[in-house]
């Protein structure tokens, strides 16, 4: 900054800082009221009743100044005109309200309101001093002594903050003087024991936390940070907000408290922790004093990728700080609806030069706002030129004035009218005394009764008050702060909130988000769990921070952030994404199925082939090769094989109770007949060669009766086993809904697995016996010996069924049925091919070998 500019800005600073110079000039023998006092300026306008107006118009610099700071020329800072308007407008509203009441004939008729304006310098200690000055009537501070001719001070309107209000109350309550506070509502001041004469005009903000919640729910911000004033007001707001957030499953990412003595340049931990937090949205709430200190940080540093939500209590747009404007672009504010004060601007502009010169504070405002001076001041010529003769407050731009209209101004205006209506009701009541100025020392005390009756904030508890004023529904405007490159800024209304859930509306299209966000910001601890997943919250972790786990088998979730997955009905199954249930398809090994069709065709073809072989053997029944291999047993074996192939058809098609009872038992019986026939053929071969010697006792076992008896006994045992199975735990029809996710398998349950494996084990036992005997007889003369073919057939049979058992156990549904059908067909085909293919080859293709001469010749060789 250049030296010329510094010297241009120096007058404004000097005028503001040099006002509260103090000196006493005590003269012996004179009245205390003649003591000159210029250290704390005040302005008093007399009236029948005088109201005290306390405003924070100046800031007093500490008396102790570090001399080291002035080794070089100090850098000067001017007072922005917009900031002047912000802090002076409550004073204008106060003056206008008093003037308007005095001009209203039906309000306090025949009584004139006066006022005394005092500055508390926004310091607690000076607020006490200003209170004593007002009670002394504007003269020197002499306790219990008033320099005013009449004791007509009735009430004080002041206290821009709770701390200032409490400092004033320490003096005012000693004299039972009413104190009407126009600053923000504070719970500390509701203690009627400590502050019995305080009345607050500010909104309670009892549902402000609900407005925050509605905004969070609308934008789905579940993970937010909080920056609060370290006061009772801030703590109360946090408790209400936290309880409502828990009720709506919202979480606090971090909580930072700004102490009253916070120095942003000594400790920037609050700013650092706010920056590194994963939360994208930060709610800022507290008193203006604390937040003004916090705004100092934001003047120099930027909270990147953070969306700020605050209230109009943080009046950062009233300071005219252009750098702060740019850093806070896109901020959303909750503000009570702006209510215009009709005629206020015209009143300010109509203040004439003489009125301004008489009122010390208006005079200072004009001089600082326009950088000129109205009167001669020693050494002031160097800093200020004289103001133009035609200069007045009319030259204030309307737009700038409208920008700084605040809740405080409206509260001051209402406070004056509230007091005026209360005074009128008191003076017109039945308990009034004839009012004479200066002769009603208990006037202020009597005023309390009526102030409580019509208090716009508290409910009336006194029955004599009649109907007390209730708490009106709170309404908040949602404002969006927008800054522009041309160093201008505006607040745009983008929505509103009505308390108790009566209404919430917001127009997102009108919102300008912070420049770091190209669209509506999101603020969550982690990404949402989509359909098909469920939230899993772990112990000692906020409910908003969770893991997304897929729904278990058979369950779905069809919404975002589902806490539990829903189980599909038994006749439905989840789709691949697990976000909806689909109807299951009924499955079984059907004839329409390619696999079922293939197996059915194979069964028919093999049964037909077996029938052809049987036909060949019947046709050539008298040939030596047929007769030599026991044609009766061959007929029984071929017929049983035909039945084996055909019984596999019982496994194909939609199962029912009958097929479930028949198919395993029919398979077991016909296979037993087939294996028993092979066993009989094997025994016959062995006995034929053992009974060749004349007179051998084994010859009597070579007849067909023995073979038939063996087949009958083996089959009877299997029939008994099947009978026991059916009589105890028979197979039954069931619907399997669990084996395949998308299918309902209609299948036959075997009933008793023990009985099922006993039946299979009996067949395996017969097969193993046949294989053993055939293997031992494999080296007998080849002409009459089919033991080799029997050995191969049993080897195939055993291999198939040994492989079947583990495969059968590991498959489900129609695959399991197909496996069993395949095993039946394969084992039956193995017996057919291994035993009858060589014989059919000789019978059909080598008839020359199928003669008795050839057999004898081969035997002799």
Structural class: alpha/beta
CATH homologous superfamily designation of the largest domain: Response regulator
Please tell me the CATH architecture of the largest domain by its name: 3-Layer(aba) Sandwich
The biggest sheet amounts to:
8 strands, mixed
- Counting DSSP E segments of at least 2 residues, the number of strands comes to 25
Distance between the termini: 133 Å
Spatial ordering of strands, largest sheet: 10-9-11-12-13-14-15-16
Model regions low in confidence, pLDDT < 50 over at least 5 residues: 1-30, 61-65, 74-78, 457-464, 466-471
Percent in helix: 40-55%
CATH fold-type name of the largest domain: Rossmann fold
Assess the beta-strand content as a share of residues.
Answer: 5-15%
* Number of separate structural domains: 4
What is the overall pLDDT average? Answer: 78
Radius of gyration: 54 Å
- General form: rod-shaped
CATH class of the largest domain: Alpha Beta
Helix count, DSSP H or I runs of 4 or more residues = 24
């Amino acid at each position: 900054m250049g030296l010329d500019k510094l010297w241009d800005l120096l007058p404004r600073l000097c005028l503001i800082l040099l006002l509260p110079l103090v000196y006493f000039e005590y003269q012996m023998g004179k009245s205390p009221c003649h003591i000159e006092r210029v250290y704390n300026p005040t302005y008093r306008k007399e009236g029948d009743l005088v109201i005290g107006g306390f405003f924070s118009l100046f800031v007093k610099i500490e008396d102790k100044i570090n001399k080291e700071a002035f080794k070089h020329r100090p850098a000067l800072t001017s007072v922005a005109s917009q900031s002047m308007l912000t802090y002076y407008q409550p004073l204008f509203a106060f003056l206008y309200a008093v003037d308007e009441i005095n001009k209203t004939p039906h309000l306090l008729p025949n009584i004139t309101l006066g006022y005394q304006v005092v500055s508390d310098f926004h310091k607690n200690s000076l607020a006490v001093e200003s209170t004593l000055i007002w009670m002394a009537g504007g003269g020197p501070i002499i306790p219990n002594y008033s320099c005013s001719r009449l004791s007509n001070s009735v009430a004080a309107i002041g206290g821009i903050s709770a701390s200032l209000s409490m400092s004033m109350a320490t003096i005012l309550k000693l004299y039972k003087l009413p104190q009407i506070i126009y600053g923000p509502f504070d719970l500390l001041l509701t203690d009627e024991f400590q502050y019995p004469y305080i009345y607050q005009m500010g909104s309670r903000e009892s549902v402000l936390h609900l407005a925050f919640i509605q905004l969070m729910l609308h934008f789905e911000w579940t993970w937010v940070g909080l920056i609060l004033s370290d006061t009772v007001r801030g703590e109360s707001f946090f408790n209400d907000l936290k309880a409502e957030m828990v009720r709506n499953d919202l979480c606090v990412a971090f909580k930072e408290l700004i102490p009253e003595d916070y120095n942003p340049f000594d400790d920037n931990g609050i700013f650092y922790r706010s920056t590194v937090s994963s939360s994208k949205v930060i709610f800022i709430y507290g008193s203006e004093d604390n937040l003004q200190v916090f705004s100092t940080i934001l003047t120099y540093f930027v909270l990147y990728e953070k969306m700020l939500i605050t209230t109009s209590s943080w009046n950062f747009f009233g300071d005219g700080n252009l750098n702060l404007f740019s850093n806070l672009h896109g901020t959303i504010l909750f503000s009570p609806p702006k209510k215009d004060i009709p005629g206020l601007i015209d009143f300010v502009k109509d203040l004439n030069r003489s009125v301004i010169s008489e009122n010390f504070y208006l005079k200072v405002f004009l001089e600082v706002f326009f950088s000129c001076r109205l009167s001669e001041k020693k050494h002031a010529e160097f800093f200020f030129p004289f103001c133009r003769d035609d200069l007045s407050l009319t030259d204030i731009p309307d737009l700038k004035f409208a920008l700084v209209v605040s809740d405080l101004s409206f509260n001051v205006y209402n406070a004056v009218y509230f007091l005026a209506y209360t005074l009128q009701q008191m003076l017109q009541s039945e308990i009034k005394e004839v009012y004479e100025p200066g002769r009603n020392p208990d006037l202020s005390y009597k005023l309390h009764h009526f102030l409580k009756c019509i208090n716009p904030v508290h409910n009336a508890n006194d029955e004599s008050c009649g109907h007390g004023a209730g708490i009106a529904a709170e309404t908040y405007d949602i404002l969006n702060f927008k800054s522009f490159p041309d160093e201008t800024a505006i607040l745009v209304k983008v929505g509103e909130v009505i308390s108790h859930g009566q209404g919430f509306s917001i127009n997102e299209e009108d919102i300008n988000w912070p420049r770091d966000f190209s669209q509506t910001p999101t603020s969550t601890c982690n990404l949402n769990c989509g359909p098909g997943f469920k939230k899993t919250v772990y112990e000692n972790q906020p409910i908003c921070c969770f893991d997304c786990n897929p729904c278990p088998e058979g369950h779905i979730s069809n919404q975002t952030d589902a806490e539990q997955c829903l189980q599909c009905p038994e006749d439905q199954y989840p789709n691949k994404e697990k976000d909806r249930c689909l109807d299951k398809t009924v499955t079984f090994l059907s004839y329409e199925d390619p696999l079922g069709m293939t197996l059915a065709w194979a069964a028919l073809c093999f049964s037909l082939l077996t029938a052809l072989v049987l036909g060949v053997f019947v046709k050539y029944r008298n040939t030596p090769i047929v007769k030599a291999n026991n044609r009766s047993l061959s007929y029984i074996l071929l017929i049983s094989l035909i039945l084996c192939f055909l019984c596999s058809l019982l496994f194909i098609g939609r199962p029912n109770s009958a097929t479930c009872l028949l198919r395993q038992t029919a398979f077991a019986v016909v296979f037993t007949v087939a294996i028993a026939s092979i066993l009989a053929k094997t025994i016959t071969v062995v006995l034929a060669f053992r009974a060749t010697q004349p007179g051998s006792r084994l010859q009597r076992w070579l007849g067909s009766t023995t073979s038939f008896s063996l087949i009958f006994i083996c089959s009877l045992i299997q029939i008994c086993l099947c009978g026991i199975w059916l009589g105890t735990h028979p197979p039954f029809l069931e619907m399997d809904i669990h084996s395949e996710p998308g299918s309902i398998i209609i299948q036959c349950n075997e009933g008793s697995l023990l009985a099922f494996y006993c039946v299979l084990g009996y067949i395996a036992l017969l097969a193993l016996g046949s294989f053993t005997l055939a293997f031992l007889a494999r080296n007998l003369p080849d002409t009459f010996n089919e033991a080799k073919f029997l050995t191969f057939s049993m080897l195939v049979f055993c291999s198939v069924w040994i492989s079947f058992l583990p495969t059968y156990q590991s498959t489900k549904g129609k695959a399991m049925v197909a496996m069993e059908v395949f095993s039946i067909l394969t084992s039956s085909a193995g017996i057919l091919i291994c035993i009858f293919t060589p014989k059919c080859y000789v019978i059909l293709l080598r008839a020359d070998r199928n003669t008795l001469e050839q057999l004898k010749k081969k035997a002799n060789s």
